[in-house]
Each structure stands twice: as structure tokens, then as C-alpha cells.
Amino acid sequence: MLELLKKKEKVVGIKQTRKAAEQDKLEMVIIADDADRRIVDQIKQLCEEKSIKVCNVDSMKQLGKAAGIDVAAAVVGILKV
Hints:
Elements: H1 4-7, E1 10-12, H2 14-22, E2 26-32, H3 37-50, E3 53-57, H4 60-66, E4 75-79
Parallel strand pairs: 2-3
Antiparallel strand pairs: 1-4, 2-4
Helix pairs in contact: 2-3
């Protein structure tokens, strides 16, 4: 799943992911297990409402690295083609 981040267009972070989800631009959202629950639960609920697939990874550090950024990431959204 993390391999997808290298090949596909993506948005990184809570705000950008939420905006893309609201505009029906996402095919999948990846959430770090160690992210703040209060924040990511809102994204999970939005994904449920929009029928967007949600996947989890172990850590924010791992997700940020896979997304190609130098900092940890709580949420990454994979954009529809």
C-alpha cells in the first residue's frame, strides 16, 4: 500500500485530505496508527460518508517517509486518476 504513494498523485495532511475528500477527489486515505485520534476520527467519519477506502500504517514517521516528505504525516490521501 505504501508503494502506491510513490506512483500516485496524493495530498498530505489533515486539511488537504479533508478538502479533497469533500470534493470527491480521493480513492483512498491512509492513516497512521499513532496519530491523534481526535483529529483522524473526523477524517475516518468523512471517508465513511463518502465511501472512501481507509487503510492504516504503523507510524506517522513511516507514512511521511513513504509520501516523500521530511516530516511525519498523520494522513495521506491518494487522488483519483
